[in-house]
Inverse folding.
């Protein structure tokens, strides 16, 4: 009897989580796509540029199907010289007395 009750409780807790709203499914799809592209980028940094560039085409087509032709959301293909450059989103500036401020550096973002 306890096993049946335990199974019913587990089913009762998991079934509602399977019924995602359209927004939640969109967020989940976006996270999956982003994680996949991050893994492909790491592989490209290791030398497998061709598969990353193919994934970029698929990713951009997916983005365009959702948001239209928005250039700011599109990823760019990687060329060999770009791999030698370090990837950085922001740099640490103005650190004094344990008060550090992150300031984005536009040349590193683009």
């Amino acid at each position: 009897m306890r096993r049946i009750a335990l199974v019913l409780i587990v089913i009762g807790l998991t079934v509602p989580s399977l019924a995602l709203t359209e927004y939640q499914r969109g967020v989940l799809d976006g996270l999956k796509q982003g994680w996949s592209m991050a893994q492909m980028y790491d592989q490209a940094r290791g030398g497998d540029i061709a598969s990353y560039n193919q994934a970029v085409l698929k990713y951009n087509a997916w983005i365009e199907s959702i948001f239209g032709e928005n250039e700011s959301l599109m990823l760019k293909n990687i060329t060999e010289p770009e791999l030698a450059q370090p990837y950085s989103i922001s740099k640490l500036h103005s650190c004094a007395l344990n008060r550090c401020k992150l300031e984005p550096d536009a040349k590193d973002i683009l």
User: Anything to note?
Assistant: Strands lie at 90-96, 99-104.
